[in-house]
Amino acid sequence: MQEPQISFNGPQWFCIMVQPNSHRQVENALAAIGYRPFLPKLKRWVSHARVKKAVERPLLGRYMFIEVDYPRQSFGPLLATRGVEAVISECGRSLADASG
Description:
Distance between the termini: 20 Å
Order of helices and strands: EHEEEEHEE
CATH superfamily: NusG, N-terminal domain
Structural class: alpha+beta
Radius of gyration: 16 Å
Strand content: 35-45%
Helix content: 10-25%
Number of domains: 1
Shape: elongated
Number of helices: 2
CATH architecture: 2-Layer Sandwich
Number of strands: 7
CATH class: Alpha Beta
């Protein structure tokens, strides 16, 4: 099966898979190198030792979104970012794997 062709007419959003518990680190690192990350979060009330506080957790587990303006931005620096495992294509397959 052949990998689908991706046409770019301006910035496009992609789903990326990150390592467990590294959302904030990946979000900050990608923003620092010029990408626009989006991490949907869910706010929950957590009770510990009779104290309630609001805690934000990632809504989609190990997934977040990134805007890529190709060819101005490439997938190389994105995949080289610590904590990023893969970029997921629109068909659910990995475009490139960060592990090699």
